[in-house]
Design brief:
The chain is of the alpha/beta class. It has helices spanning 17-27, 31-43, 50-55, 61-70, 86-95, 108-116, 127-130, 137-147, 161-170, 181-186, 190-193, 206-217, and strands at 4-7, 99-104, 123-126, 154-158, 175-178, 198-200. The chain has 12 helices and 6 strands. α1 (17-27) crosses α2. The longest helix has 13 residues, at 31-43.
């Protein structure tokens, strides 16, 4: 049975389209061009941060985040950037008596914003807050600890086969793949995808899928 669910943040709960657009503006690059290069970097299996190097060699993301903050243009997201299906899904899962959490590679600032949005979860964990990041085993060990149940009773939901799904499976955690955002549409690994418990196009049906799964498991 599934006793706890943890969700990736970017492109699973939060639509990052606007934020990446602001990075294009910061670099002085047309948004369409930035998006095209971003997709090409992902398709080549590279770290998304390589996108910035294409336009500005030597780009340091941490330093540029600080510069944006100093310029009054910090990275940010609001309620409008949450996917419309996110909040209802999280609330419905908690109504089923399940422990629900967010766990992603996010900055301390992003963690503060998530807490201020008061999303209906029991746990908010970020790479900055935990001091470990995906796809390391230590990150998913922390997910299991926060879930408070055995690994095989946790479901991790994410959009990235490389950063979310594969390492979660390696930690013994069942997974659900959501197909949205650039990674969800570009990346492919049939062996990893086939091991997912659920394949989703949105979060809307997830509570019913989990309920049915648990009823069957009983």
């Amino acid at each position: 049975m599934i006793a706890s669910l943890f969700f990736d943040v970017g492109e699973t709960i939060v639509d990052e389209s606007r934020e990446y657009g602001t990075w294009a503006d910061w670099l002085g690059v047309p948004r369409h061009t930035f998006s095209a290069v971003f997709g090409a970097v992902i398709a080549r299996g590279l770290d998304y941060r390589e996108t910035f190097q294409v336009f500005r060699p030597g780009f340091d993301l941490t330093e540029e985040r600080e510069r944006r903050t100093a310029a009054g243009q910090p990275e940010s997201f609001t309620e409008e950037d949450l996917y419309p299906d996110a909040r209802p899904c999280l609330a419905a899962l908690r109504d089923l008596g399940l422990r629900v959490g967010l766990a992603g590679n996010q900055t301390a600032r992003a963690e503060t914003i998530l807490r201020a949005l008061d999303v209906p979860v029991d746990v908010i964990g970020t790479s900055d807050g935990w001091g470990v990041e995906k796809p390391t085993a230590a990150f998913f060990d922390q997910v299991i600890t926060e879930a408070g149940c055995p690994a095989d009773q946790v479901l991790y939901v994410g959009d990235r086969l490389d950063n979310d799904i594969r390492p979660a499976q390696q930690a013994g955690i069942p997974t659900a793949l959501i197909r949205r955002g650039p990674w969800g549409h570009i990346l492919g690994d049939k062996a990893v995808s086939d091991r997912c418990l659920f394949h989703l196009d949105s979060l809307t049906d997830l509570p019913d899928l989990v309920r049915a799964h648990n009823e069957s498991a009983r």
